[in-house]
Amino acid sequence: MNALQQQTRHTAPQNISSTAFRDAMSHLAAAVNVVTTDGPGGRAGFTASAVCSVTDDPPTLLVCINRSASAYPAFADNATLCVNVLSAAHQEVSNTFGGKTPMAMRFEHAEWTTRETGAPVLADALAHFECRVSQRLPVGTHEIMLCEIVSMATHDAPECLLYFNRQYHQLPRAIASAG
Ligand SMILES: NC(=O)C1=CN([C@@H]2O[C@H](COP(=O)(O)OP(=O)(O)OC[C@H]3O[C@@H](n4cnc5c(N)ncnc54)[C@H](O)[C@@H]3O)[C@@H](O)[C@H]2O)C=CC1
Ligand SMILES: Cc1cc2nc3c(=O)[nH]c(=O)nc-3n(C[C@H](O)[C@H](O)[C@H](O)COP(=O)(O)O)c2cc1C
Predict the structure, then answer these.
(1) Which residues does the chain have with pLDDT short of 50?
(2) Of ligand 1's atoms, which has the minimum distance to the CA of residue 66?
(3) Ranges for the Flavin reductase like domain (predicted)?
(4) Is 63 in the pocket of ligand 2 (CB under 6 A)?
(5) Fewer CB within 10 A of the terminal residue: the chain, N end or C end?
(6) In this prediction, does ipTM exceed 0.90?
(7) What distance in Å separates the CA atoms of residue 148 and residue 54, rounded to the nearest whole number?
(8) What's the confidence (pLDDT) of residue 178?
(9) What DSSP designation does 70 have?
C-alpha cells in the first residue's frame, strides 16, 4: 500500500450516514457569511457557509437554510435578504449568528445599517449582496433560496474568514511571494 492509499478513507455508498457526510464536508473550506432579512416576518439573521454564485445573468446566488433554524420563519415570510461576507475581524459576529443567541441580541455587537431592501447590512463586510428571493426549493431538511442581486458593495479588508475542519481560519488578500 502506498502513502496516498494509506491517507485515503473510502466510505461505501450504503454507509453514508449524516455523520459520515458531515465529516467529509468538514474537509471543504468555505467562506463565512451572515445572511440577514427584515420585513413582515421580522428581523433575523444566521451564519451560513452554504452560499454560492449561480449565474451572472441575472446576477444570482443561492443560500441554503435549515427549516428548523430559529431564523427560518422570518426568511420564509420576507421577500428580500442580504448576504454579508465576513472578514477575519468578524469571527465573533459569526459565533453570535451561528449559536443559540436570541434573535434580538444578535444585532447588538456590530455596526448594522439598511440600504435598498431594508435587510440589515454589516457596515464593514468584505462584500454584501442585497437580494430579492426569486425561487425557493425545499431539499431534505433545508430550503434553497435563489437570490437575485438588487444592490451590492465591497470593502477591501485585508483578510477573509474561512471555515475548514470545524475551525475558523484567516486568509490574507495577498499571499507574500517567495523569493
Ligand atoms: N449547511 C448547514 O446547514 C451547516 C450547518 N452547520 C451547523 O453548525 C453547527 C456546527 O457545525 P460543525 O462544527 O462544522 O460540525 P458538523 O459536523 O455539524 O458540520 C461539518 C460540515 O458538515 C456540513 N453540515 C453540517 N450540518 C449540515 C446540515 N444540517 N446540512 C448540510 N450540511 C451540513 C457543513 O459543511 C459543515 O462544515 C452544527 O449544528 C451544524 O449543523 C455548519 C455548517 C453548515
Ligand atoms: C460556520 C457555520 C456555518 C453555517 N452554515 C449554515 C448554513 O449554510 N445553513 C444553515 O441553515 N445553517 C448554517 N449554520 C448554522 C446556523 O448558523 C445556526 O447555528 C443554526 O441555524 C441554529 O440556529 P438557531 O439557534 O437560531 O436555531 C452554520 C453555522 C456555522 C457556525
Answers:
(1) none
(2) 3
(3) 25-170
(4) no
(5) C
(6) yes
(7) 10
(8) 65
(9) T
